[in-house]
Amino acid sequence: MAERTPRRRRRRLIAAAALATGVLTGVAACSPGPSGGSATSAKTSGPVSTDPAKAGKVTLTVWDQNTDPGANVSTEALNKAFMAKYPNVTIKRVSRSFADLKTTLKLALSSANPPDVVQANQGYPDMGAFVKAKLLQPVDRYAKAYGWDSSFPSQLLDLNRFSPDGKTWETGNLYGVSQTGEIIGVYYNKAKLKSLGLSVPTTLGGFETALAKAKASGLQPLSYGDADKSPGIHIFGVIQALVAGKPEVRKLVFDEGDAKWTDSGTLKAATTLRRWADKGYLGSGFNGKSKDQAVDSFGRGTSLFLLEGTWQSAVLAPKMKQNVGFTALSPAAGQPPLTQGGEGLAWSVTSKSKHPDVAGAYIDFLVNKNGMKVAASHGNLPALPPADYKPTPGTVDADILTRWKAVSEKDGLLPYLDYTTPTFYDTLTAAVQELTAGHLTPKASTTRLQSDYSSFQNSR
């Protein structure tokens, strides 16, 4: 393989998680990266009008994936407040599940009447592809006008940067900002855990012990449904973080060094997940069940654990009250927790928006202090938490904030694996489904991942 120019050194993801603590532990503050090139059209340059009231009558079409209860309610509340403040603006909201958004958004962006604002997933498969196709416009001028470039740490902004050709991630123009933070962790049923004589697991080994004891007692160990595909990324990613370690995962996702998806750490992760499936820890028919079904099942008390994102707290808390807890796992006793996470999908302005300044003002309305406060009030983990964000002790939201701090303070936040290449989401999700179904061996699944990774490396 020809020698490649290595991607610039990855800045720590700790800053993304540390936002919830109010402290950027071990990370020096630094200014945002370079703009990476001049604007491509009149829409991306010139003065910014920050007053939508002066825009005349406007219909702003917004596509999002905030279908989970907490995110949906906060989005609806903020949309209503924005229209009340600016009666001349009508927000036409189109909300899709994450899986549906991935399959329909590019077509919508390419249509004759594309939306004005969209949520774009970070990394090569979505944001990079949209930038390459000139479907998104840079928002650097809005970052300057509204102060996003100072309120958001550069490490968080960098996750939403791309070179204008869409080939290089984390550098160049800014293509959006995010409202929420998130990590993947383990929800647990407190009463059932106590009935089994178990304490809250803190390590991978302790978690596996609990899975085995639940299975032996006749209780379903884990609620899991992978019909939506993204749960497979989460469960595999958490296991990989714990058995392969953060240096290897970061090298793979950010294309640094000579790490391979067939290395022993990732192979061990695949072997572990296959073992869980073979032992019945994931239940039956999981590839035909949705994540919503899995969450509902756990909420009804049919299982001991649920491995999911912090965004599910708004679903579970009303059902389970203080009987649900949340934790993040460590590789071994005495070691800090490691898990996937970062920030929610970026709010972006489309390149063909007829009202880009109104779109920019709308995004600021979502991510300013009040927007973050509204998000937090509905059970979401805000990317920039208000100073008075203090969840009630004993609640799952309090657990989430505690674990978020524990992950951030020890640099334990790792990237989502689907960021890796333009095609990795499809490759990884299919490989995980076939692995857990017993149609691929662990070695064959990692070989498939490496093939996708190698093709991307050779194309750069």
TrEMBL record:
Keywords, comma-separated and alphabetical: Cell membrane, Lipoprotein, Membrane, Palmitate, Signal
Matches recorded under Pfam families: SBP_bac_8 (PF13416)
Signal peptide interval: 1-28
Region named Disordered: 32-53
Biased composition (Low complexity): 32-47
InterPro entries (alphabetical): Bact_solute-bd_prot1 (IPR050490), SBP (IPR006059), TAT_signal (IPR006311)
Coiled coil ranges: none
Keyword Ligase (UniProt): no
Protein name: Extracellular solute-binding protein
Organism field: Streptomyces asiaticus subsp. ignotus
